[in-house]
Amino acid sequence: MLDPKLLRNDLPHVIERLGIRNYSFDHEALTALDTQRKQLQQQTEQLQADRNARAKSIGQAKSRGEDIAPLLAETTRMGDELDTAKASLAEVQSALDDILLTLPNMVDASVPAGRDENDNVEIRKVGTPRQFNYTPLDHVDLGARRASLDFETATKLTGSRFSVLRGELAMLHRALIQLMLDTHTREHGYTEINVPYVVNADTLKGTGQLPKFEEDLFRLVWGDAQTQAEAGAAGSDYYLIPTSEVPVTNTVRDTIVDAAELPIRYTCHSPCFRSEAGSYGRDTRGLIRQHQFEKVEMVQIVHPDESFAALEQMTGHAEAILKKLELPYRVVSLCGGDIGFAAAKTYDLEVWLPAQNTYREISSCSNCTDFQARRMQARFRDPTTRKTELLHTLNGSGLAVGRTLIAILENYQQEDGSIEVPEALQPYIGNVRAVLLP
Asked: Is residue 361 flagged as an active site residue?
C-alpha cells in the first residue's frame, strides 16, 4: 500500500511514478474522499471533546445539587451525533482503503519506461546457447518416452494444464529442489522454512494479491451449507497459495522485529496454484504455464537502507543455480509496463530454450520496498530512536522447478532423445550421468 501521507502531500510525484507503469487513477476522487475524511475526523474529535467536557460538568452540577436532567439529555444528543460522525468516518475510511488497496507500488527511478515485455532492458547474458547439428526436440516430445511426462493422465485426474511426472523425470524434479535448497541454505545464508499451502484472505491482502487479483487465485470451498454457515464468512475464506512468497512474507505481519535480527532470509519449497486467468491460449503446450507447479522461493526482510543492495544479492543467488546447472541465461530489468503490482524494481532471469529458440522467464526477483510491509504492518524498532519503522520486503524464485526441468531436457538432450544430467545434479540422483536412455 502506498503511504497515504505521500498521496496527500506529494500527489504529482505519485501520479508521475505510477505513470511509468502506464497506470492512472481517479486522483480527484481520492483527494475529495481524503478531504471528507479529515473533516469528519476533526468533527468526531471535537464531538468527543465536547461530550467529555459535558460529562465532567454533569458531575460538578450533581455535587452542587442542581437538576442534571437537561445536561443528561444534551449529553445523550451529543452521543448520538458522535455515533453518527463515527459511522460516517468509518464509511469514508473504508472507501479510501478500497482505493488504496488497488493502487500498485511506485516504481523506482531506475526502472525503464515501457509498455510491455518488449520494452524490458537486457542487463547481461551468461553462457552461450548450444548449437545443434540436428533439430532439437521440445520438452514435451522428449518427456514422452516411457510416459515420463504425462498430460493425458493428469487431464483425466484433474483437468487441463496439469501434469504427471514419472520415473527419471520425477527423480530429476526432486533433485532440482534439493540442489536449490542446499545452495540457498548452505551457501547463501537462508533459513529453510515450511509453510501452509492454504492461507486466509488477510495473508493474501498483506502481499498484494487481494483484493485486486482474486480471479488469479483458487478459492477453497468445503463442507455443506450448514458447515459453512456455522464457520461464518471467515470460515470459508481460504485460498491455495499462488507462491510461497505469500505465507513466508506474512510471517512478519503485525510484528515489530528487533533491528538486530535483520536481515531475515527465508527459502521455501512449495507447490504454487494459479488459475492463469487471462492467459488462455498462451503456452498451452507443456509445462510452461500450469495451474500447479513447484518453486523454491527466496524471501528477504531487510532494513530500508539495504533493500536495493539485497535485490542485487538475491538476483545473484538465483543466478547461482543456473550457473551450477550450466544453463545459458540472461538478466533483464523489467520496464514499468511489465513490472508486478507490488514491486518497485524487478529483475527477470530468462533461460535459453533451444526448441523455442528464445529466452523464457525462469525467475523474478523483486524489491517491494515498504509496499507490502505497510499492508502487513510489518515493522522494526530503530535502536537509536526507539521508534518503529516499516520494513522492506523482497522475493525471488530460486528457481521455478518445472521450468528448470524444461531447460535441462532441452539444453542437455542428445540426438537419440536421451538427456545428459548436469554435473551439479548427479550427486542427488546416485551419480547417474544420463536419463531416458534408449
From this structure: yes
Is 274 a catalytic site residue? yes
Find, among 402, 328, 310, 403, the residue nearest to 365 by Cα: 310
Structural domains in the chain, CATH included, are: 26-100 (1.10.287.40), 117-435 (3.30.930.10)
Question: Which of 336, 340, 335, 338 shows the shortest CA–CA distance to 372?
Answer: 340
Cα–Cα dist 64/186, whole Å: 78
**Residue of 8, 54, 289, 330 marked catalytic:** 289
Q: Which of 361, 389, 418, 420 is catalytic?
A: 361
Q: Is 364 a catalytic residue?
A: yes
User: Cα-Cα-Cα-Cα dihedral of 158, 160, 164, 165, to 10°?
Assistant: -160
CA 335 to chain centroid, in Å, comes to 18
**For the whole model, what pTM was predicted?**
0.93
Produce one character per residue of 89-110: b if its CB has 16 or more CB atoms within 10 Å, e if not: beebbeebeebbeebbbbbbee
Q: Which residues of the chain have pLDDT under 70?
A: 223-236, 278-281
Say whether 279 is catalytic: no
Which residues contact residue 396 at a Cβ distance below 8 angstroms, ignoring those fewer than 6 apart? 297, 298, 314, 315, 317, 318, 363, 364, 365, 366
Which is the catalytic residue, given 17, 253, 274, 375?
Answer: 274
Catalytic residue among 21, 51, 379, 403: 403
Any catalytic annotation for residue 289?
yes
Q: Which of 270, 364, 366, 397 is catalytic?
A: 364
